[in-house]
Amino acid sequence: MIEFKQVSKTFTLGPREVHAVKDVTLTVDQGDIFGIIGFSGAGKSTLLRLVNLLERPTSGRIEIGGTDVTSLKPKELRKQRQNIGMIFQNFNLFNSRTVAGNIAYPLKLAGTPKAEIGRRVNELLQFVGLADKAGNYPDQLSGGQKQRVGIARALASNPDILICDEATSALDPDTTADILRLLKKVNREFGITILLITHEMEVIQSICSKVAVMENGEVIESGGVFDVFTDPQHGTTERFIRSVQQDLPSPGILKEWRDGGGGRLYRLLFKGAIANEPVLSRVTAKHGVTFNIVYGSVRELQERLFGNLIVSFSGDPDAVSAAIAEIATLTDIEEVIELER
Ligand SMILES: Nc1ncnc2c1ncn2[C@@H]1O[C@H](COP(=O)(O)OP(=O)(O)OP(=O)(O)O)[C@@H](O)[C@H]1O
C-alpha cells in the first residue's frame, strides 16, 4: 500500500516558487493498477519521483507498506528502492550491454550470486517473451521489445511495486496494447502493485482499476475507473474521457437533426446491470410513447456495462413528460440541449 498524506513539493527557482505537487492525499492499495492522468506540467512526474524516493516532499508523508519513507536512513532507503521497480518512456537501457546484461544489472548491483543471476535472467526473459534475444543489444530491438527488457529489468529484484513513467507514450497503438497486456500479467501473476502516470486515457481505460486526475499539482478527482468514467465530477476529467469515448453526435450531426425539424434530444446513461434491462422500451410502452435512438453505444469498462444513448421521444406531450420522469427514477437522463458544446 502506498499512502500519500498531504504531500506537497515546491521547487524554488531563484525568486520563483513552483508548486509542482500540492497537498495530495491518495491511497494506492496493494494489488491495484493505479493510473495518474493529467496534462503536461500537472505534477505527475514529480509525484512519481516522490514515490521512488528521488525527491523528498516539502511537506507531508509518504508511507509504503506502513513505513514513512521520507524519514528512512540511507541504508534503509537503498533497501526500499529495491522494492520499487521502474520503467520509463524512453526505456533507459544501457546500449553497451546485451538484453541479458541489462536485466542482470540490478541483480549484480545487489550482489546476487552469479548462478542465481543467470537463472533469474532466463526466467524473466521467458516471462516477457524475449528468450531468443538474450544476446542482442538494445539498438537491435523494436520499441516494444525494449520496453519488455525494461519490464524484465524492473522485475529482477522481485519488487512489490512497479512504477511506470509514460511507459507506452513512445509506442504505436498495437505495441502499446501488447505492453499493457504484459503489465496486466505482471499485476495478476505476481500481485505487484502498479502505479503509472500517463496523459493517455486509453491506458487508464484498458488496464487501471483506479484513477486520479491531476491538474496544477493537485488531485482534482480520484476513484474507481468505472465510477470516474461514468460520473466525472470535473471538466478536465470529462475532457480526458471524451478523448476515448465520444458520447454525443458531432455538432454537425446535431445541427442537421435540428434543421430537419428533429425533436428534443435526451441523453440516457445506463450503468452496470441496468444496461441489460429494456428500461427504455418498457417505460415508453407503458406511457404510449415512441422513441427513436439517434446515437448510442454500450461498452464494457472494468467488466461492467456502461451504455450511453441519445434518444428523441414522440407522442402526447404529457405522456412524454411522464415517461421521462419515470426513466429519471431508474437511470440518468439529461436533455442534450444543455450538453452541446
Ligand atoms: N526539478 C525541478 N525544478 C523546478 N521545477 C520543476 C522541477 N521538476 C518539475 N518542475 C515543475 O513542476 C511542475 C510539474 O512538473 P511535472 O514534470 O511533475 O509535470 P508532469 O505532469 O509530469 O508533466 P509532463 O508530462 O510534461 O512531464 C512543472 O511546472 C515543472 O516545470
From TrEMBL:
Coiled coil: none annotated. Keywords: Amino-acid transport, ATP-binding, Cell membrane, Membrane, Nucleotide-binding, Translocase, Transport. SMART domains: AAA, NIL. GO terms for molecular function: ATP binding. Gene3D superfamilies: 3.30.70.260, P-loop containing nucleotide triphosphate hydrolases. InterPro entries: AAA+_ATPase, ABC_transporter-like_ATP-bd, ABC_transporter-like_CS, ACT-like_dom_sf, MetN_ABC, MetN_ABC_transporter-like, NIL_domain, P-loop_NTPase. Pfam families: ABC_tran (PF00005), NIL (PF09383). The keyword Cell membrane applies. Residues 2-241 form the ABC transporter domain. This is D-methionine transport system ATP-binding protein. It comes from Bhargavaea ullalensis. The lineage of its organism: Bacteria, Bacillati, Bacillota, Bacilli, Bacillales.
